[in-house]
Write a structure and sequence with these properties.
The structure holds 3 protein chains of 3 kinds. By secondary structure, chain B is of the alpha/beta class. Chain B is built from 15 helices and 24 strands. Chain B has 3 domains: 89 residues, Roll (Ubiquitin-like (UB roll)); 157 residues, Alpha-Beta Plaits (2-Layer Sandwich), CATH 3.30.70.20; 228 residues, Rossmann fold. An 8-stranded mixed β-sheet of chain B has the order 15-14-21-20-19-16-17-18, sandwiched between helices. Classes of the chains: A alpha/beta, B alpha/beta, C alpha+beta.
């Protein structure tokens, strides 16, 4: 009964080829879009309530409308395929199984924002997805879909989670370290190479052809009042059938876990990370929330990249926190002081707690440091880091206290 | 022009002014590290956060342009608490080096901690360790542990000198400032990074471990190294003579002047003060190699000037002398009818302008000498001496044995002159050859003015007392003039400047007050601005 | 374990992927053969540079090219690439030391990068790492003495549905077990 939009082509043989895509009505949305004015396209996407599926959940149509109307120079479309949020793997599936959906999404979006040049930033580790996508781009060029007013440049990353942050990605695209840019100016005003730029996630752009094909109202109707459509949830951790599952954004976390076969390990749920590693953890009695942007925001966490990591009773939460603390310390770009200094410090403290040398004050110190740093940094990386720092300790404090000396 | 309110005070500023500058004009200090008015905005340190009404979270002031109607608060509890947090973050991995760190006393971690921190430290884990005491070229030494990664030095090398030697390598709390391995920080402005480093990460090798900064007094002056006349502060150690090897001048720092050098100074100028406290300083007058009392030497010099015909006297002046010095000399020469006075002696190795501040002319007052009417080329004087036409040759400051003139010509000239007199600050080849030597006070020991190559007249100020019997040149010339029957000697440099302004039209509208601390232009000379840094010049496409 | 060549991707505590700071200040990693692209490669460099509004955008792709050609990115390589972009070498060094996929020292013929992030950790990534360390006789971050394999512990490779997993050279090896690891090692020459 559930509508499958994004994963509709995955089971077709050779789904990544142009032939297969065309056979599945691929590029008909693009044909339709070419009869629509850019402003109409933007409006349609606004009305669809499509929200960014990379992590921030920003309304996509609204973001597109930030391009200055009076700008006469180049406008760039940048695709964020630097998937890196722990627990997330949906974009990898799209790149490997339906690359033409992304290309079609790019074509329509480029027309909407009047861009003639698009960059696809693929994380360096994604070699197979890169080859698949490159082959699809070549097919599109050969078929005259690309190169007729819209060029695509594929740019491989070189290993840095921070390049998934939109302005960190832009810095990396420009040939520098992936240091996020101070805002203002915002990318829509001054982005890649100093020009107005729209950065969108792979999955977000894959929603565009269906929206244009079937209409904004249809897409909006698939979801909640404030977020339209379906999305691909990445289910991993202690679930029986890990994998990627598409569902309406109105699905609840409980329903999703069931979809993925239920809790494995002890079979008893302890906690769930609902939106990638940077999302605050939810306890077993907090899973009756809708997995849309606002539903999880109201529950004190976020849907982020929709990477769901399930933990059963046998999971040590302090150990889980250490794994993430180590991750954030490793991936902190180092540009601004609060993140650079405190991610390393917190990793050391959590490690010390795990080793049995935790002190009584450590937990409150970690909480205080995390809260003090939040909102003070150049980008939201640190705000993501404090999601686990704060929620794991606050919601599972006794488990941490047991490791700290009296 | 936007009008905004900061801490209840209203101010109108030019469009585009950031909040740190707007607040500064109201006398409000917003603490900051990475912001520097001469460099691009980095927004990295996060210390300059302020509360702006209608903005939910504190915002960095450096990257916020003043907007009409903006209401800013820099002293709310939330801002103070944020500053405390940011100070703590900066100090997490900072080594407790204060007892051995040269920056102590002028370190902005210390200063801001005392003003905005004052929390109990709670970091008990091992701090990140990085290289310490790494020389980065002849003038700068790096301690990577102390570095707060504000990136000012990196931006300086990119945007000012355009040489790009420095980078921030790696990431996270292992980030590190450094050079490309194997390279050196070799540009002629390298030590400016020491000035702009807010902490003791980049320090001056020359100043290392010399003297604590709280023993230093500061006096504004002008660099005498070339015709640019960069504004400086002279830092002297008066109270701890057993520190810094007894040097009185401990270091020079650039002083901001938007019309001349902005915030910068070249390394040549910055380190050009070692002659001041050199053992080779001439402290006492000498006759035939023996120290004599000043009055005796003066008497001998006056006699030489009085007892010979003016046509038989030649004076080689120096463009190192101030306007006051040169004008006094002119008066002296005029009084005695001596026409053979010139200032120009070619250097041993001709220099060139660099692409920023340094001028090929390594004298601070060539334009002043010109404006005062001293003849430029001293070659005719040398020729006359060689031809046997001079009985007295008075050389001021120049070392003729090490200049662009042929050594043989100089030797011949000196051999044929009856009385050779040398007045100068330091012993050199010339002073050893001159039977009569009188000491001059060095530039840090004198008040006066220099005129830079663009016609800007700027004030020197005495930072220390002259050594021994040395006199300021204007003082020496004034006394000689008096002993030759001229008017009573003037007691201050400023009085000579007034005479100069009364006599030479180019200086007519200038007074020490109007010159102030930023200088003023000669009549007819257009106002100046500091040159554009090489790093900012648009590179022409290949 | 003795004789194992430590590489820039050190143990997790030293931030996997980055050179020990003490070594970056010593210019001792000159490659034996001169670092130069062929004429075809230089043409490719120019082509890549032309794709971007500012040619600097091609720096990451060209560094990948350099690593594929010369095996790793030495300081000499950095200086060479800097010349191709008219960039100060320090800025190329910044980029090379920032990203984990650029090796600043010679690596093994094969690289096994085992994910040790959350889902893989829950699925037993530490066991996989320890197994590989034992089999290869090296610690994570090191290269085997015969130069065959460099072993790394890395952050999320985004294949969490098939945890534990690793990236072996260009491909993802999923649902690892000790046995599967042994089969993979056998096939690596």
């Amino acid at each position: 009964m559930a509508e499958i939009v994004l994963m509709r082509n995955f089971d077709r043989p050779d789904s990544h080829t142009l032939t297969a895509y065309r056979n599945a009505s691929g590029y008909t949305a693009w044909t339709k879009a070419q009869t629509m004015e850019p402003a109409v396209l933007v409006d349609e996407v606004k009305k669809s309530n499509l929200r960014g599926l990379g992590g921030a959940g920003f309304p996509t149509g609204m973001k597109w409308s930030f391009i200055p109307k009076a700008h006469t120079g180049p406008v760039y479309l940048v695709v964020n395929a630097d998937e890196g949020e722990p627990g997330t793997f949906k974009d990898r599936y799209l790149l490997e199984h339906d690359p033409h959906a992304l290309i079609e999404g790019m074509l329509i979006t480029a027309r909407a924002i009047r861009s003639t040049l698009g960059f696809v930033y693929i994380r360096g580790e994604y070699v197979q997805p890169w080859r698949r996508f490159s082959a699809a781009v070549k097919e599109a060029y050969d078929a005259g879909l690309l190169g007729q007013g819209f060029e695509v440049v594929i740019h491989r990353g070189a290993g840095a989670y921070i390049c998934g942050e939109e302005t960190g990605l832009l810095s990396s695209l420009e040939g520098k370290k992936g240091w996020p840019k101070i805002k203002p100016p915002f990318p829509a005003i001054k982005g890649a190479f100093g020009q107005p730029t729209i950065v969108n996630n792979v999955e977000t752009l894959c929603c565009v052809p269906p929206i244009i094909q079937h209409g904004a109202a249809w897409f909006a109707g698939l979801g909640t009042k404030t977020q339209g459509g379906t999305r691909m949830y990445s289910m991993s951790g202690r679930v029986k059938k890990p994998g990627v599952y598409e569902a309406s954004v109105s699905i609840t976390l409980r329903q999703l876990i069931e979809k993925a076969g239920g809790v494995s390990g002890t079979g008893r749920l302890k906690g769930v990370v609902p939106g990638g590693g940077s999302a605050a953890i939810l306890t077993a009695d907090e899973i009756d929330v809708t997995m849309d942007v606002d539903g999880l925001k109201n529950a004190g966490t976020m849907v982020g990249s929709a990477g769901v990591i399930v933990m059963d009773e046998s999971v040590s939460i302090p150990e889980a926190l250490f794994v993430l603390a180590r991750f954030y310390a490793h991936e902190s770009c180092g540009q601004c002081t609060p993140c650079r200094e405190s991610t390393g410090w917190i990793e050391k403290m959590v490690h010390r707690i795990l080793e049995g040398h935790g002190r009584k004050d450590d937990l409150d110190t970690i909480l205080d440091v995390a809260k003090r740093g939040g909102g003070t940094t150049i980008c939201a990386f640190y705000d993501g880091a404090i999601g686990p720092y704060i929620s794991y300790i606050e919601k599972f404090r006794s488990e941490f206290e047991a490791l700290c000396r009296a | 022009m936007p009008k905004l309110t900061i801490d209840g005070k209203e101010i109108e500023v030019e469009a585009g002014t950031n909040l740190i500058e707007a607040a500064r004009r109201l006398g409000i200090d917003i603490p900051h590290y990475c912001y520097h008015p001469g460099l691009s905005i980095a927004g990295q340190c996060r210390l300059c956060m302020v509360d702006i009404e209608k903005t939910p979270r504190p915002t960095i002031a450096c990257n916020t342009a003043a907007a009409d109607g903006m209401v800013v608060h820099t002293q709310t509890d939330r801002v103070k608490d944020t500053r405390r947090s940011i100070m703590e973050f900066h100090l997490i991995n900072h080594p407790l080096d204060c007892p051995v760190c040269d920056q102590a006393g002028e370190c902005f971690l210390q200063i801001y901690y005392m003003q905005h921190g004052l929390y109990d430290p709670r970091m008990v884990d091992e701090k990140v360790h990085k290289p310490k005491a790494v020389p980065l070229g002849p003038h700068v030494i790096l301690d990577a542990e102390r570095c707060i990664l504000c990136s000012r030095c990196v931006r300086f090398c990119d945007e000012i000198t355009g040489t790009g030697e420095l980078g921030i390598f790696s990431r996270g709390d292992h980030s590190e400032i450094g050079l490309f391995p194997g390279q050196d920080l070799e540009n002629n402005y390298s030590a400016n990074v020491v000035d702009i480093c807010p902490v003791g990460a980049l320090t001056d090798r020359d100043f290392r471990f010399q003297v604590r900064v709280w023993y230093l007094d500061t006096t504004p002056s002008i660099c005498p190294g070339c015709a640019r006349g960069c504004n400086i502060d002279v830092h002297v150690n008066r109270t701890r003579p057993h520190h810094a090897g007894g040097r009185r001048v401990a270091r020079l720092k650039p002083r901001f002047n938007a019309a001349v050098n902005a915030w910068w100074i070249c390394d040549l100028g910055r380190y050009g003060f070692d002659r001041v406290d050199d053992p080779e300083r001439i402290r006492f007058a000498r006759h035939e190699g023996v120290d004599v009392l000043r009055d005796e030497a003066l008497g001998l010099l006056v006699a030489a000037l009085r007892d010979h015909a003016p046509e038989e006297i030649g004076i080689i002046a120096s463009p190192d002398l101030s306007n006051e010095d040169l004008f006094a000399l002119r008066r002296l020469a005029e009084h005695r009818g001596i026409r053979q006075v010139a200032y120009g002696v070619p250097p041993a190795t001709p220099a060139a302008d660099d692409d920023f501040l340094l001028r090929a002319d390594r004298h601070p007052n060539t334009r002043g000498a010109e404006a005062i009417g001293i003849e430029a080329d001293a070659a005719p004087i040398l020729a006359r001496a060689r031809a046997g036409g001079l009985k007295v040759l008075w050389v001021i400051q120049h070392d003729l044995t090490a200049c662009g003139w042929l050594a043989g010509d100089v030797a011949e000239a000196l051999g044929r002159v009856g009385t050779v007199v040398f007045t100068g600050t330091n012993d050199n080849g010339m002073s050893t050859l001159s039977p009569l030597v009188l000491p001059l006070a060095a530039w840090v020991e004198r008040d006066g003015t220099f005129t830079n190559f663009l016609g800007r007249v700027q004030r020197l100020r005495a930072a220390v007392e002259p050594l021994g019997d040395a006199l300021a040149p204007w003082d020496l010339f004034g006394r000689i003039l008096y002993m030759l029957g001229g008017p009573a000697p003037l007691g201050r440099a400023e009085l000579w400047f007034r005479e100069l302004a009364k006599t030479v039209p180019a200086f007519a509208s200038l007074t020490y007050q109007s010159i102030g601390s930023e200088g003023a232009m000669l009549a007819g000379a257009p106002p100046t601005t500091a040159p554009e840094p090489p790093g900012r010049r648009v590179k022409t496409p290949a | 374990m003795s004789g194992a060549t430590p590489i820039s991707n050190g143990p997790p505590a030293a931030r996997a992927g980055h050179a020990d700071p003490a070594t970056t200040n010593r210019a001792e990693h000159a490659a034996p053969a001169p670092i130069k692209f062929s004429a075809e490669q230089l043409a490719e460099v120019r082509r890549l540079q032309g794709l971007y509004p500012d040619k600097r955008g091609a720096l990451l792709p060209v560094l990948h090219m350099a690593q594929d050609t010369f095996g790793y990115i030495s300081l000499e390589t950095e200086a060479y690439v800097a010349g191709l972009f008219e960039l100060p070498p320090a800025h190329v060094h910044e980029v090379v030391t920032f990203y984990t996929l650029y090796f600043q020292q010679p690596k093994g013929r094969h690289v096994i990068a085992v994910c040790h992030n959350l889902s893989c950790h829950l699925a037993g990534a530490q066991d996989i790492l320890r197994h590989l360390e034992t089999r290869l006789g090296i610690r994570r971050g090191e290269t085997s003495e015969d130069g065959r394999v460099t072993l790394q512990a890395v952050e999320c490779l985004c294949a969490c549905e098939a945890a534990p997993m690793a990236q072996v050279d260009e491909r993802y090896e999923l649902n690892l077990t000790s046995e599967k690891c042994d089969r993979i090692l056998q096939d690596l020459r």
